[in-house]
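From the pipeline queue, job 12 of 40. The input is one protein chain; the requested action is below.

Action: predict structure.
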Amino acid sequence: MCSKNLSVFEVLDNSIKAGDISLLDNFNFDFAKGKLSVFVNENHWLITFQFLGISKLGPSIDVQIVGSDVTSGSDGILWEEPFIFLDKQGNYIDIEDVEAGFTKDNFEISVRNKTFNFKVGKDLKERINDKNEWITALREMVKNKNFLELVWLTEEEQLEQAALSSSYYCIYSTENWPHPVSDTDSTQNYSFFKSVAHAISKNNADYIVDNEESNTYWKIWEKFDSVNFW
């Protein structure tokens, strides 16, 4: 394994140990959906993790960034209010003003000036309470691929958050990957991350092997839900 590959593992593993890359059993953030993206620029690389869910601040995307050019070793932001809630007249509502029980009827949100109408199924409505209403709504919303395409940060926005130039280009993105399950779980144990490191060394996504079982499905982590936004 070449040194460039080893540096990918070292940066990822150190970031996981430091808590700069979240584990999905996170009691401060209830998980709905994730996205991983890989960027390269000649001999440099960048990996971003986006986690959509509910924090104590409300619906948000936790953006976590690692790479050879991220001077702190890792960086991240909490992208608050990735969408706007609408009332029945189509007016914007502050997230803090959305009242409990909003999933009893259809509800509308706006993302990048596009409106989406959502309805929570009867089977889920029977399980909803004040504590889990927001995360249940988010998990219904992420089933809509058009919504997801708009709510994720664009490649340009991700590079902007990392303070990196547009000369980086994205070679790979996925919403399904085998995410480490503990802070002692090395990315070298995963064929997926091995192949990502290889792809980075070759600047070619064709080397990425994505047939390893994914664990970035919210149902696996539902038992760790704890955030009460209201």
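Job complete. The chain has a mean pLDDT of 92.
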